[in-house]
Specification:
single chain; 330 residues; two-stranded parallel ribbon; 12 helices
């Protein structure tokens, strides 16, 4: 299907990926609605989107009445909402369960009752694979989650499969690796290690690295993530399928920190011991095999890490000085 003129609901459309996705939907001519739990946190961005014709609705994904009204008439539902972070999910398991499981169940029930023709694109996570036996990791690899966040993402995939089987609800899943790029607030520490590193380096702060920093990760630019999400939304072939969304290349955390510091011209590396809980949920090396989405849908990452880092450093250097900085972590 073409997205021009399509009615698209973006749940979490004022978050990091959501802002970038909504901007692209505007370019594509989609009739876009955003659901956000608190527009006051992103008031300027919400106002800018409204000037561009986006409808911004304040509400909670867990509110059954609100969801019943907002899903009516939508053709695509981009679900980017949820609580993020492996450690955070273990520190507050009840919140992660409530937001990530009950919220998605409310959405599915709303679609079952009021709009079975819509298609959901759900943002999953590379954390679902746990500690992989080998890399790169394809979509059929065992899922042995090490944190509740990952288990809840797995559970939502099971919800989606059941509702497709019983009620014909269409969906596709994007298992996203480590996204980075413009649009993530400086104080956001649950995920986004590259953006956090860049904020810290520009502020001439220490980039704290857990352990020796040799853990490997797959980092994907948010523009590539957005293009993948749009591809999943538009392609009928993606129905009922899960796809890895990553760069397909691995980089050691210490090498990443060194690159960021060199590009920023400020900052320094500081090695610290692993916090106990973070070490328990550490997944080891991860690189995504992205061949399935390339072969089936024609998507492949277009932005190399070096180029993406240069763009992102330039963006945040030009942005207002960040506050509330966390640490780089893992």
């Amino acid at each position: 299907m073409t997205l021009s003129g399509s009615r698209v609901l973006v749940i979490g459309g004022l978050g990091f990926i959501g802002v970038n996705l909504t901007s692209k939907l505007i370019e594509r001519g989609a009739e876009t609605t955003i659901l956000t739990p608190d527009r006051s946190r992103h008031a300027e961005q919400a106002a800018a989107f409204e000037r561009a014709g986006v409808v911004v609705v304040e509400g909670d994904l867990r509110d059954r009445d609100r969801m019943a009204s907002i899903v009516r008439g939508q053709q695509i539902v981009m679900n980017l909402s949820g609580q993020s972070g492996a450690v955070r999910s273990m520190e507050d398991p009840w919140a992660d369960l409530d937001v990530n499981c009950r919220g998605n169940l409310v959405l599915l029930e709303a679609l079952r009752e009021h709009n079975r023709d819509a298609k959901i694109v759900f943002a999953g996570s590379r954390l679902q694979y746990g500690h992989p036996e080998h890399v790169p990791v394809n979509e059929d690899a065992p899922q042995d989650a090490l944190c509740l966040h990952a288990i809840h993402k797995q559970t939502v995939e099971r919800y989606l499969a059941l509702y497709r089987r019983l009620f014909g609800i269409r969906y596709a899943v994007a298992r996203i690796t480590n996204p980075y790029g413009p649009g993530q607030p400086a104080g956001r520490t649950a995920y986004g290690v590259i953006n956090r590193m860049i904020h810290l380096a520009i502020a001439d702060r220490a980039l704290t690295i857990y352990g020796d920093g040799v853990q490997v990760r797959d980092y994907v630019h948010v523009d590539d993530v957005v293009q993948a999400l749009l591809t999943l939304a538009a392609a009928d072939r993606s129905d009922g399928r899960a796809y890895n969304i990553g760069s397909g290349a691995g980089t050691r955390l210490i090498d990443l920190a060194t690159k960021v510091i060199a590009m920023a011209g400020t900052g320094r590396v500081e090695h610290v011991p692993w916090p106990a809980l973070a070490e328990q949920v550490e997944t080891g090396d991860f690189v995504a095999d992205v061949s399935r989405i390339e072969h089936e849908l024609g998507w492949r990452p277009a932005i190399a890490l070096h180029d993406g880092l240069e763009r992102t450093v330039a963006f945040y250097r030009a942005a207002p000085s960040p506050t509330g900085l966390g640490t780089a972590g893992s």
